[in-house]
Structure formats: structure tokens, C-alpha cells
# Entry
Amino acid sequence: MTKHQQKPASFLERLIFNNRPAVVVLCLLISAFLFYQAAQVRPQTSFEKMIPLGHPYIQKMLEHQNDLANLGNTVRISVEAVEGDIFSKEYMETLRQIHDEVFYIHGVDRSNMKSLWSPSVRWTEVTEEGFAGGEVIPQTYDGSPESLEDLRDNILKSGQIGRLVANNFKSSIIDVPLLESYPDPEDQSRQIKLDYQKFSHELEEKIREKYQAQNPNVKVHIIGFAKKVGDLIDGLVGVALFFIVAIGITFVLLLWFTRCLKSTIAVLITTLIAVTWQLGLLHTLGFGLDPYSMLVPFLVFAIGISHGVQKINGIAMASGYTEDPVTAARMAFRQLFIPGMVALLSDAVGFVTLLLIDIGVIRELAIGASLGVAVIILTNLILLPVAISYMGISQRAIKQAREEASRDHPFWRALSNFASPKVAPISITIAVVALAGGLWYGQNLKIGDLDQGAPELHPDSRYNLDNDFVIRNYSTSSDVLVVMVKTAPEGCSHYDTLAAMDELMWKMQNTEGVQSAVSMVSVARQGIKGMNEGSLKWETLSRNQHVLNNSIARAEGMYNSDCSLAPVLVFLNDHKAETLEHVVAAAKDFAEENNREGLEFVLAAGNAGIEAATNEVIAASETTMLIAVYLAVSIMCLLTFRSLAATLCVILPLVLTSILGNALMAFMGVGVKVATLPVIALGVGIGVDYGIYIYSRLESFLRQGMTLQEAYYQTLKSTGKAVIFTGVCLAIGVVTWVFSAIKFQADMGMMLTFMFLWNMVGAIWLLPALARFLIKPEKLRQKA
Amino acid sequence: MSEPVLRRTLSGRAKVANQARASRFHSSVAGMLSLCGTFSLLLLAASAPAQAAADGQIRYSIESAKAASNLLLDITQAGERIVAAGDRGHILFSDDEGNSWSQAKVPTRQLLTAIDFIDDKHGWAVGHDALVLNTIDGGESWAVQYEEREREAPLLDVWFEDSQHGIAVGAYGALIETIDGGQSWDDISDRLDNEDGFHLNAITYIEGSGLFVVGEMGGMFRSADMGETWERVESPYQGSFFGVVSGSEPGVVIAFGLRGHLFRSADFGDSWQAIELSNGNGQALESGLADGSLLRDGRIAVVGHGGAVLTSDDQGRSFKLVNRPDRRSLSGVTSDSQGNLILVGQGGVRIASPSGADLAPKQ
# Structure
């Protein structure tokens, strides 16, 4: 301690402590402004933010978005008849009312909406007269038993069984394509962005609740991206409760740790100010709070508390030498500002590497977290010591700090054995075995989603139950890969184009994981058969262009207006990463073999195409991100300690944690995806704090000429408690997430808790063992 | 309530260029063939491989586990073996009465419409692009004998008398004959009184009587001299006929087509009797009937759209109707030694009970 006191006061320290009232007033002003801003932060998200916009698949998809008739973003409402089947007057009436009600919800692409009540849903039949057809529900429908019987016939002839009508006739679907933005009903020139939460609530209130109450014989099942996101955002509200729980637990722990109510409140308040600032800045910069960056306020809170604790610890110790709280605060500031800065900068650098990943939500998380960390520098490294300098610290805390400094600690004494020549080799051996085991088991780690349905939500969530209902009762899965077939204008109906599309469809249908494939070819084949009196012998493409042109007349929506782009829809069994990889590879092969002048097979759209692209981006970024984050923290350590050995001592325990973390993910059946990818960077970025705090202390004691084990004992005695406390604090900040209604938050919480705790264990247990082999105390002594 | 969208009347047809097709066929191909005789036959025979070569390599049908559950159009016996043909050049054969299927090596990916065997080795298949394929190893490997893409129309049925003489019929009045086992084909469509070039949908040999061809717009033709001369038959129905089956008694003809129309003649087409077809509830059958067979146990089976299966054990005087629950359209039928029906159509091949209903699950 004495050494630090001799350090002269820096310019920054003088600037701050000579203008304490100004600092406090300034912070209050900023807080007032940002609190106002933070109050306006709303949960929000968008489809485009969750997808890798730079990936060629996505770029091609966006390029042709207008031609693709909204393949990406659809909600499907399945209305189930609990008793009996859909052929009852009451059911059909309820279905009609729901159809009409949905039609008027803002954001619905009305022209492409489809249900049994849509005029576009038709049946066809071959008669002596030729090709006959009509609306499935004709104008003459009146709900009488006869017209219901007609309806049944029409449905049988319409080919909608398994699509709009369940295979068991007990439910039917309303297909609702959405517009990401729609014209303001009051001012048509203005576009309003679709508010998913509002939309989802409207579906609940105006559709599910209303009609289930009105007709007890129907059950409404709703699936689709918009509903999923709506549910996720609702889940966020639950997460707010966890925040309060985390504050409560942290308060108790802080009180136990500091034995001082005043400083406990000071730390809590400055940290909450940091969270407020971060949220306020987020809103000021135009961001909202989406389900993925919801993590950030928790992280900021946890990091803020841990640094606050270090500060309080420092001030309490400094108070042992001086009665004046201002001097104590100044001393603590002088002593801790640099390591605090370094640790926080390492955090920030770790977060910033997430910007490398080309997915909007991850980038926002990176920006949000970096902002948060920057804010903590102001609040907890500057405002907190200033605040304490006014408030002072309780005598009890000071007394305890003095006692702690002088007495012997058997617990720390025992732990210091980790640095002993006997224990260190054993530790290293265990670590190497764990590393090898982790690497081996980590091979099972998969990219992407591993479960059916929406993996963001729990398997027994209503959304997933609804999804399961639709998968069980209909033939078209909700996982669609779209291959776009590009030709010259008017080229999509050429025999060569259609024949190649037909080949692609057959190849895809013969690929494992594919349920079925549909394109304008399917319609053309049926059309040609229809033109030939329904004879199956004509169910193929014709080489006659007139016949082909006629045959695709009914394929509206299956090709664009100038017939230069036609999608091939490939329905998949599921969206597991292997399935996607497999199917995409088959489509790519086909494209490479068959692309030629004037005919190009372009990947990919559809939700499976997007997920395939996301998986590719994540697989590619995973390594890049790991290299970047380790490079960044290594450079931070090298700059701080100017020693390769020291850097290794700090970094290697983190590597072990990362690898064990991967193994844990594999064990829990969680894939690397948008939600879990950031965890590794966050874990490393924050985990490096412990190493930096411990090693910087250890080094200073070694320079004083102590042996390694003695130096480590002194280190533990002075900061060991703070480090363990920090680990626990961070873990508490995120462990409550395990109870989140949102599965990926639960997974994130579990992973981060593991990372934070294990990084702490690594720093306390493995760092000294590595130091035993890597650090030469004599050299440090010479330098000193 | 119903609104016809694309009327297949004479005036409507002209717009769809069918007429143009038909006349072109008559003027160029038919004219050339009948005028130049054997010379052009050689030319045609030579043109088939030439065309394949121009296309690069021969494109064989893709071997697929899904071939047996994909569209199949015709099924027949080749000795004890059962052979079926259909979509994408798929030809499948089974040596265990339809329980398991192997896929033949076929040098096309076109839709094959009909298949016929004269014994356990020699068979022919026809299809779109006016393809004729033949096999000499019981259907395991196939070669293209004839192909004419410019025709832009399919052959729809084929019949062989023996290893040399055969006739195929097709769209727009196509009628071609071979007397050298398919090496060369002669266009004989002008032997038929079919000036408008209506589709000829099926050809069969009527026991003890001669050849019978049915087609579009009530077209019926017969030949008592194995195709040398043809005579138009007074048709009992003006809608299209899709198929014709012989009874086992001489002169019995069963012809059937659109909207559940089925007629029986006991005198090789001189007189006809409409056979009423209805299900157990007395509802008349309204689906089109596609194809039929005289089964080895002497029964007659006819199948069609919407999963309709008709069976008769009285030489076609009456039929029992079963509508299969999956309602998928059928287009070919044969039977196994137990009398079970082996059906093909949408969704490929399936084995049904002798009446056409689903088989009880095996114990």
C-alpha cells in the first residue's frame, strides 16, 4: 500500500477531486436527460435484424424480394374444431369472422391472404366440357347441410388438403403474409414499421381470445415469425422481474461484503445509474431493446457492481491509513483507476469483436455492451469514489478492513498452495486432462438450431405446441428453402427452364430431409393434365410453348410479373443444421451443374434459406471471433504487463473455460446460434478481469521480493475476496435467467453463469500454477 | 357454379395450336413417310440415335428410392415378372408380385405412358417425345428405338402381336406400325378415318376378333386384319374414351372414359350397352376411367380418377365399384397370383385386395 501512496496525483485525479461538486452536478444532469431517454426504450425487433444481411443468400433474397410474393414472413392461423370437423355451419361462420378480422389488422398483406374463404382458393375438375373450376366456398354457400357437402367435395377437388385444410379435416388454416412496413391509414404517403409486439397482441386479443370465447368449439393455433417474436418480447417483460431479483440478491451480498449500508447503497445507485445511462444512450442512438440485447443491462449491472466492490474494498483499506474520506477515496482512485480501466477496456474490446459478425442483433448487442462498459468507467470509477468521498465509509467497515489486513487467514493460506511447487504440476495435469476432455466432447457441438419448432422458446410453450399441432396435421412443413430460378424476361415459361426446374425438384425430393418440392412446374404439369381431360398420361411438361404458356396461367404467385424469376419451394422435415447443410449442398451442386447463359439457379430464400445463411455466417464467424477476442485481450494484457509469460498466465485459464463451455453446450444440446455465439466473447471479455486483477497484485508483491507462494498469499488476502465476490456477483446477474420463459435466455444464462464462475476458478486455481512454471520471480525482482 | 375455363371444343382447340400440330404432322411427317416409303423409314430409324447424340450424352433416368412412390402410368406382366413404367423414365420391375421393386436402366427422363410385353423377355414402352423403348432382357435394360421431339406430342399406348409386329397410338391421331420388332416405324395414321387428328388413347387386341382403338371425342376404330385396314365404329358416347379392354370371350369389348362412362359390346363394337356404375349408396360414378386389364383369373378390372377401382367377374356385364380412401388417381392395374390387384397411378404402386380396397395389415 505504502508504495501507491507515494505515487503523485495524476492530472485526471486532480481534475476530478478538485471539482467534486461539478462532477456530481454534471452526472446528475446527464442522468436526468438519459433517464428521460431510457424511459422511452421499448422492446422491439425486426426480421431483418436477425439475419446476416451481407450473406450472398440474403442479398439475393432481398434483391428479388418483390418477386417472391412474401415467402419470408407469414403467420399461419389454424382454427381447430374441437368436436366434430370443419364441416359445420358454426365452424365455417367463425372461420369467416376470423378471416375478416385478420384482414383488417394493420401489417397484413391483404391481397395475398389465403383461407377457405378467399376467392383465390379454388377447385378444378375435368368434364366433357373441359376444365371446370370455382371458388371452394361458392357465392351460393348458405351453411345448409347440402352446401356443406358441396364444400367437402370442393375441398377434395381443390388439392388444399394438407395445405389449407388439415389431413383429418378437423382444422383449417388462414395464411397471413405480412408487410414489414405498411402505409399509415391516416396518411397514405407515410410508412409505418410493423410493430411485432402490437401485432402479436392483436392476434391474441382480437383472434384467439375473442373467438375461443365466442365459439367454445374452436381452438386457435398461431404460428409464424411474427407470433414467435411477439411471444419473445412478452417474455422480456418477465425478465424485468429477474432484474429486480438480481438487485435484491446483490444488495444482500454487498452488505455482507462491505459491512456498510452507505457504501452498499452508493455502489447500487451508481451502478443503476450506469444501467440507466446505457439504456438512455441506446434510445438516443435510435436502438430499441430486442430479445437478444436484453442481456446487456444485466451485464452492465454485474460488471458495475464488481468494479464498485473493488472500489469500496480499496477505499476501506485506504481508510485504514487516513481518517479523511476524501483522501481515502483519492488514494483508492489512484490505486485502482488504471487496473479498472484496463479491465473495462478489455471487456469493451471483447464485446467489440462481436461487431465482426454480420448479424444485426449481435452487432447491437456489441454496441450496447460496449456503451455500457464505457459508461461504467464514468459512473463506477469516477462518480463512485467522488460520492464516497462525501458520504464516507462506516467505522465498522474500516475496522474490519484493518483487521483483515493484519490477521492471518488460514483459508487464503490454504489456497496459496496452488502456487506451491507440489500442487502446481497436479493442477496443470488436471487442467490438461480437462482441456483434452473438453476438446473431445466439444466435437459434438453443432451449429444452428437442434430442435424442432422455435428453439428460442421452451418445448412446452404455447407457440411450440401450436407449431407441433400444425406439423402433425398438415403436409407442408413450416421449414421452406427457396431456390430462385432466374431467366431473361419471359424466359421462365420456356421448356428448357421448366424442365431444369423439374429436374431440380426431383433431385431435391430425393435428398434426405426433404418432404416435398413445389414450383410453377407443379402447376404446369397439373394444368397440362387438365387441358387433356385430366389424363395422367399428360402430367408432364410439353415441348409446345403455347401449351406451356396456357398451363402456367394458373400459377399466379409462382413466377414474377415479367416471367424472369420463379421460386422452387423445397419443404424440409426440420431446420436442424445438418438437414439444412445437406439440402443446401444438394441445391448448390445442382446449380453449379446446370447454371448456364440465361438460366441461373440462385440460393436462397425462405426461412430455411435464411437459417442456412445464418448458420454459415455463424460457423465462419465463430473461429474469427474467437481469434479476434483472444487476440484483443492478449494485446491488452501484453500492453499492461509487458510480458508474454504474464499474458499466458492470464489467458490460458480463459482458454480452458472456453473449451469447457463448448463441451457444456454440446452436453446441454444447445447449438451455436445467434443467441449463444456472443456468450463466448462475453465470457472471455469479462473473464479476463479476474486474471488482470490477480496478476497485477501478484506481480507487485513479487517485485517486493516475496516468494511466489507468499506473494500469492498476499494477493489473495488483499483481492482474493473481491475477486470471488466479483465472480459471484456476475453469476448472480445472469443466473436468474435460467428461469426465463424464453429458452435461449435460459441457455444464455446457464452458459454465462458457468463462464463467469469457471473463469474465476481458473484465475484463482490455475493462474498461480501457471505462474509457477512461467514466471521467474528473480527477474521481476531485478526489474524492480 | 362451375365455370369452364378452357373448353376443349374444336374451335377452342385451334387456338391452342393443336390443329397446327396435327396438320403439320400430317403434311410433313406423314406425307413424307407415305410417299417415300422405306427410304424415309431408314432415315427415321437413323434419326433417333442422332438426336440423342446431338444432346450430348444419353441422359439415363435417375435411380431413386422414391421411383416406386412417384407417378406410374402403366403396369403389365412379363412372364412371372411385373413391370411398371411412368414419370421421369422410371421403369420398375418386381419378381415377388409387387412387394419389392428394382429400377431398370432407361435412357430417357421423359414420362412413359404405356408398356407391353409379348413374353418374359421382349417388351416395349412408349411415352412423350414420341419415344419407343424396347427391352430384350425382361425389362432390366432398355434402348431407344424411336424418338421424335419435334412432334411435341406423346405416344399413349402400345401393343405388340409378336416380336416383329407392333402398333403404337398417340396424340393428334398418331398411329405408327413396325414389322421389324421396332427397328423402323411406319406412319399408318391415314388408314384411320380421323381427319381432325383427335387423340388416340388406347389400343388393344379383342379376343378372337381383332384390334380396337379408342380415343378423344368418342373415337372408336377397329381392324379385323391386325391393322391393315381400319373401320370407324359407331360410338355410343361423344366424350373421350381413355381405355379399352378385351373380355376373355370372343368379341367382348369394354370401353371407358370421361366421367365414369363405361360401355360393353359383345360383338366387337357393332352394338353397345352402357353399364351403370355406382357405389353402395347408389351414387353414380363420376370420375374418369383411365385403364383396365383382363386379369389372369378371368376377371376384368378398370381403374380411374379419384381412386376408383371397378372389378367384374361376369365379363363386364356388371362392375363392383370401390373408391379407394386416398382418392389418388389410378392409371394402370394388374393382379398377382392371389387375385390381389396391383395398382399404379399418382403416388406410385400399391397392392390392393381383389376388390381394390386396402389390404388388411399383415399379421
The two ends of chain B are 48 Å apart (CA to CA). Chain B touches chain A through 50 residues (CB under 8 Å). The CA atoms of residues 212 and 222 of chain B lie 4 Å apart.
